[in-house]
Amino acid sequence: METVPRPGKGVPLKKDKLQAKRKKPRRYWEEETAPTAAGASPGPPRKKKKNLELRRQKLKNAHNSKKSWSSKKSQVTKKSREQRRPREQKNLREQKKPGSQQSLSGAQDPFPGPAPVPVQKARKFCRIDKSKKLPHSLPKTQSKLEVAEALEEEISIKAARSELLLAEEPGFLEGDDGEDTAKIRQADIVEAVDIASAAKHFDLNLRQFGPYRLDYSRTGRHMTFAGRRGHVAALDWVTKKLMCEINVMEAVRDIRFLHSEALLAVAQNRWLHIYDNQGIELHCVRRCDRVTRLEFLPFHFLLTTASETGFLTYLDVSVGKIVAALNARAGRLNVMAQNPYNAVIHLGHSNGTVSLWSPSVQEPLAKILCHRGGVQAVAVDSTGTYMATSGLDHQLKVFDLRGTYQPLSARTLPLGAGHLAFSQRGLLAAGMGDVVNIWTGQGKATLPALERPYLTHRLAGPVHGLQFCPFEDVLGVGHSGGITSMLVPGAAEPNFDGLESNPYRSRKQRQEWEVKALLEKVPAELICLNPRALAEVDVISLEQRKKERMERLGYDPEAKAPFQPKPKRKGRSSTGSMVKRKKKVLEQEHRDKVRQSLEEQQKQQKQQKAKPTGVQPSALDRFVR
Amino acid sequence: MQAAKMNALQTIEGLLTLSQQEELVDLPNSYPLSASEDEGDSDGERKHQKLLKAISCLDEKNRWKWTERSEASLQVSEFNMSSEGSGEKLVLSDLLEPVRTSSALAAVKKQLNKVKSKKTMELPLNKEEVKQIHREIAFNKTSQTLSKWDPIVLRNWQAEQLVFPLEKKQPAFVPIELVLSGWKARTPLEQEIFNLLHKNRQPVTDPLLAPMEKAALKAMSLEEAKMHRAELQRARVLQSYYEARAKREKKIKSKMFHRNMKKEKARKALKDFDHLWKVNPTAALDELQKMEKARVMERMSLKHQNSGKWAKSKMVMAKYDLEARQAVQEQLAKNKELTHKLQIISESEEEKRGTKEEESLVPDVLNEVQMCTDGPNPWLLRGCNSDTKESEIQPDPEQQPEPVIPKFPKTEEDERPAAEEEILLKGFGESRSLRERFQLNRDTESVGCQETKDSSTQDILAKLKALNQKLENRHSSKQTVSPAGTVLQVQREECIPEEEESLLLQRPERVQILEELEGLGKEEYFQNKELPRPLLKWKQMKRNPNNQTDSPKGKKKEQMIDLQNLLTTEPPSVKSLAIPTAIEELEDEEKQNLKQMIKEAFSGDDVISDFLKEKREAMKASKPKAVDLMLPGWGKWGGAGLKPSAKKGRRFLIKAPEGPPRKDKDLPNVIVSEKRNIHAAAHQVQVLPYPFTHHQQFERTIQTPIGSSWNTRRAFQKLTTPKVVTKPGHIIKPIKAEDVSCHSSKLGLSVIQSVTAQPTGNKKQKTDKSSVD
C-alpha cells in the first residue's frame, strides 16, 4: 500500500549530519560548487569539473573514467534548506490572502488557484476500485458513496502534493559506452565516491568464528552479526561504534534484531535466546528449540522461528507469548523469508515447494511448486509482488505473487544461489559460493532483469548471510571470512519516514516511537494473503445472520414488497384492471430475469467456445513424434 | 262515431307499437283499450258515457288520474289490466284536498310540507369516535408544526460535523471596502499614489469596480428588476385569461349568443369604419373594398346552400310550387358543382372519395330526396327517410298511407309530437346501434389486444426460440456430430413448448459436465498409474484422437504439460563475470560430471507427480461430498458377496451442490488453500450499516485508509473529525425557532420564515445575546 511520503523531519538538530551521512559520495562536490551551503568539507578540486558535467547530463558520463557514481539526491540538496524555507514562506503568504494582495496592487496572480497536481501522481494514492460496478443504490446510499469518493479524491490530491517533500533521489551507477557495470569493482566505486560513502564500504576480517549471519535494524543504522562458532556482536555500523560483543559458547544459526536495536534474538544450538544491546541475556525461550532461521514481523511484533523439527513458531515479543506453532510437515526447515507486504512467511522445502504461512491458519495458505530440487533460498520484494527462489537444480526464478504464482523469469546459474535478498528498491542479490551477484530492474519495484548482473563481487569466503541495509545503498554480506559491507548504488529508498524509521533518532525518540508502535500493533490474526480483503464485508457470516434473522422473524424483512398498484381515479381502478396491472409488472420482472439468465448462458457459451479456438491443432502437428 | 273511434284506435295502436316504454300520460289509453275490449258488449249506453267522460278528461284543466276498477267478468282482456294506479303513492295532501281546492287548507298543506321536509336531529357521535376525531386533528396539527424542523434535521443529519453549542456562522470574508474604509494614506509615497489615482479617476477604495462599471451595476436596481418581472408576469397571466375566455366562448352552443356577438362585432366594425372615414377617407375606401371582397367571397363559397332566407322561403313554397322546387334543386346542384373539389387521383379512389364527399358535404336528406324523386313530394319524405336508412325492410303500409296524408285531418301540433317521437326513436336506435357497434369494437379490440398480446408473447417466444437455436447450433457445431439438416429441423420446430425447450437448453451442458467428469476420471486414472512420463505422453496422444471434443480435458492436459515444461525446461544460464571459485577450479569434464551427478541424484524423487498427487487430494478434500443414503439390504438381498445394484446406488445418492471454482483451478503449480481464515473473519465487518443495501456499496466507503501513516496530517485530521463536538463549559441550549429562522434564511426556506414571524430588530438582539453567551 502506498503510504504518504514524509520528510525527514525527525531530527531538526542533526540535519547537517543527516546530509553528511545520507548523501552519497557526490554530495560533497556539490557543496563545493554551492558555496552558500554550510557544511564545508574539503574535497579534491581536481574532480570538480567532471562532477559538474555529471550532474548536468545525468545520462552519460563524459569523463573518460570508467565508472561514474552519482546520486541525484545531491542535485536537490544543493538547493539547500536556507533557500527553500523562504520560498515556502512566501507561498504561504500568497495563499493566505490572495484576494487582498491582488486587488491592492492591481497585479494579477499568473498562476491563480492551488497548484495543479498531475493525475497520475494522484491516482497512485487512490484506493477505491471503481472498476467494479455497484448494484443500484438508494439516494441516501448514493450520497454517502459520493461523499466517500469525493473525500478520497481530495485526500489523494493532498498526498500527491506532499510528494514534493520527497527531496532525495536514488543513486545509480552507469558505465561508459558499452561498458558493463558488472565489471566495475568495489574498489573503483569506493575510489569514485566521497569519503563518507567510501567509509560505508568495509570488511571485517573475522576468520576465527566461522561463517557469519548478519542483520540490520529497521532504521538501517545498526548491524548485528553472529558467527557459527558463537561470536555475537552488535554495532552502530556507520560510526563503527561497538555496542556489545560476546561469545555465547554455543553454535549460533541465526541472529535478528527485534523491533528496535536494543533487543536481538539469537538462534543458538538448542534454544532461542534474547539479548539486549549490552550483551546481557534477557530470555531463553525453550519452547523454540533447534531454531534454524529467524524472521521478525515488525508491525505485528512477531518473531517467527523455523526449526529443525519442522515447526514454524510465532512468538509475540510484546507479550512474550507464543501465538502459534505450526507443523509444516515437510521435514527440516532451513529456508524462510517474510513478505513485507502482508507479513506472510514463506518457507522453502526440500521437495521444491515454497509454502506460505499465516499464524491463524493451520495449513499453508498456498503451496507453490518452484523447483525440481530442494529450495535453497527465498526472498520477497518490499512491495510483495515478486518472490525470488533458488533451488538445488541451479536455477534462479522470480515468481509473481499477485495471485498467479507463475515464474516471470528464470535463469540457470553455474552454482545454485544459496542466499537471496531483495533491496528496498527491488534489486536482487544472490550469493553463489563466494560470489555475490546483483540484478536490477528498470525502476522501483520492477522485475529484476536476470540477463546480466548489475554488480558482482567476489568475497573472501563462501556467502553465509546476505542483507541489504535499509535507507543506505549498502549490502551486507556475511561469509566465512567475516563481514563485508558492499556499496550498491540505487539499492535503498532515498527518503525515509522520520516518524516511522528514523536513522538519526535519539534515545528519547526511540522510546516514544516504541510506545506508539506498540499501541499500533497489528493483531496476528489479521495476517492473510490479501490484506485488502480485511476491508471487505464478511459475506458468509452476513448471509448467515440474515438467514437466522429470517428464521427468527418468520419472514424476510428486507424482501422487496410485492408490487401493489396504486388506485386510480375515475373508475379505472376496477379489480380487474388492478389485477391486470399487477400481473403485467410480475411478467415484466419474470421476463427480465429470463433475459438475464439467457445472456449469462450465452456468455458462458461464448467463453467455452472461445477457449478451444485458441489452441487449434495445426495440420503439421501429426508429424510431431 | 264508430268510425271515429276506430280511427282513434288505429292511431293510438300505431303509437303504442312505436313507443311502449314511453308513459303517455297525456293520452288516456286505458279508455280506448277498454273500449276495444268491450266492443262486443251489449250495453253500449254505459260505454258511451264512459267515453264521454274520458273525452272530458282529456281537457287540460281537470286532468286527474283516471283509473277504473272493473268488475269481474268472464273475459278478462290483457289490455284492461292497467298498472297505472298501483305504483303511485298516496300522498297525504291528496286526502286533504277536496274536490275543489280551498284556500283555507293551503296553509295546512304548507305546514305539512314543512314538517315533512324537516329532518330529524342526528344522534350525537359516539364518545370514542369523537375522541378519535380529536386525536386525528391534534396529530395533524402537531405533525404540521413539527414538519418545519424537517430541513434542519436533514441538514444536521448530513452535516460533516456539528459543534455544540450551535453558533451562527460569521461570514468568512469581510468585504474589502469595509477593511479599506478605515485605512488612510499616511506616508508621502502613499499620498502621492493616491493623488495619482484621484487624478486619473481610478478606483481607490474598491479597486475592482471602475466608475463605469458601477454605473452599469446601478442601472438596474433590485426593485426595478422586481417590477419588471412582476409586469411580465401580469402580462402572461392576462394572456392566459384571454385565451381561456376565448376558448370558453367558442364552446358556447347558443346560436343566439353567437348571433349577438356577430352583430356586435359588425356594429363595432361599422363604427370603426365611420371613424376611419372621418379620419382617413382613402384608407376607409380600401377597407370598404376589402369588406366587399369578403362578402363576395362568402357568397361564392355558397355556405348557406339551403339555410338562407331565400332558400327557406322557396322550400316552404316548394310544397305547392313546382318552380320553386326546381329553383331550390338548381341551387343545390350548383352548390354541389361549385363545392366539388378537383382532385387528381386514381380513379377508383376518386370514385370512393367522390361518394364520400357527396355524403359528407351534402346533407343526407338531400341525397334521399334525389334518390326517391319518383315520390310525389320529396320534402315531406324527410321523416321516414331516416327510417329507410335505419331498417332495410320498410313496412309497406307506412309508405302507402303517405299519399293519403294531405287528406289526413291533422293539425300541425298533432304532427309535431309524432315527428319528435320519430326523432327520439331514431336517436335511440342510433344510440343502440352505436352501442352495439361500440361493443363489437370493444370485442374486436379486446380480441385485438389479446392478439397483440399473443403476438408480443409470441415475439418473445420466438426470440427465445431463436436464442435456443443459436445455442443449439453452437452446441451442434461444437459436437460436429449432428449434420446440418437436423439443425435446420430444429429450427423449423417452433411449436415446442417452453418447458421442453428449457430441457433442451439444459441438456448440452449436462452432457458437457458428464464429459468433464469422464475426462477427470480418465486423468485420474492416468495419474494414478504413474506411468513413466514419455509413456504417459504417448498414451495421451493416442487417446486424443478418440475424443478431441472434450475441451476441458484437453485444457487439463495442457496444464500438465505446462507444469512439466515449467520445471523441466532449462532456462538460459547466466554468464557471470565472476564464477564461484568452487566451480572455477573444476575443469569442464568435472563440471559435466557434477551436472550428471545432480541429475542422477534427483531422478529418483519425482517432485512433480508428488505435487500433483497432493493437489488432487486437496481438491478432493475441498469438494463437497455426496451423501449416500442407500441401505444395502433394503428391498433386495444383501450380504457378503452381493453387490447392491448401481441403479439403487444412484437413486439414493444425494449429490452435494457444486461449490465455487477453486482459486488454483488454472494454476498447475499451485495449491491455494480454500480454508476460511476464521480468525481474520472475526475482525471483518459482519453487519451492513443503515443506508447500505449491498456489501459492495459499504466496502467502497471503507476502502480508503484513514490512518495517519497513509495520509497527510491534514487529510488524517479531516478523515477523523468527530461527528459531534461539544465545547466544555458551555451550556447547550435546545434549538429555538429564532435560530431556525436564522439558519433558514441562509438556506432560503420560506416555510420557517413564515412560522417565526418576529420583528427583525428583535431577532438581531437575540442573536447578539446568544453570541455574547
TrEMBL record, chain A:
The keyword Secreted does not apply. Residues 453-531 form the BING4 C-terminal domain. Gene3D superfamilies: YVTN repeat-like/Quinoprotein amine dehydrogenase (2.130.10.10). It is found in: Nucleus, Nucleolus. Part of the small subunit (SSU) processome, composed of more than 70 proteins and the RNA chaperone small nucleolar RNA (snoRNA) U3. Interacts with DDX21, NCL, NOP2 and EBNA1BP2. GO terms for cellular component: 90S preribosome; small-subunit processome. Keywords: Nucleus, Phosphoprotein, Repeat, WD repeat. The gene is WDR46. WD repeats lie at residues 368-402. GO terms for biological process: maturation of SSU-rRNA from tricistronic rRNA transcript (SSU-rRNA, 5.8S rRNA, LSU-rRNA). Residues 79-97, 549-559, 585-603 have a biased composition (Basic and acidic residues). The keyword Phosphoprotein applies. Pfam families: BING4CT, WD40. It comes from Cavia porcellus. Scaffold component of the nucleolar structure. Required for localization of DDX21 and NCL to the granular compartment of the nucleolus. Part of the small subunit (SSU) processome, first precursor of the small eukaryotic ribosomal subunit. During the assembly of the SSU processome in the nucleolus, many ribosome biogenesis factors, an RNA chaperone and ribosomal proteins associate with the nascent pre-rRNA and work in concert to generate RNA folding, modifications, rearrangements and cleavage as well as targeted degradation of pre-ribosomal RNA by the RNA exosome. It comes from the Eukaryota. SMART domains: BING4CT (SM01033), WD40 (SM00320). Residues 1-118, 549-625 are annotated as: Disordered. Residues 57-78 have a biased composition (Basic residues). This is WD repeat-containing protein 46.
TrEMBL record, chain B:
Pfam families: Utp14. InterPro entries: SSU_processome_Utp14. GO terms for cellular component: small-subunit processome. Residues 27-48, 384-418, 536-559, 753-773 are annotated as: Disordered. Its main location: nucleus. It is found in: Nucleus, Nucleolus. GO terms for biological process: rRNA processing. Residues 409-418 have a biased composition (Basic and acidic residues). Residues 753-762 have a biased composition (Polar residues). Keywords: Nucleus, Phosphoprotein. Belongs to the UTP14 family. This is UTP14A small subunit processome component. It comes from Cavia porcellus. The lineage of its organism: Eukaryota, Metazoa, Chordata, Craniata, Vertebrata.
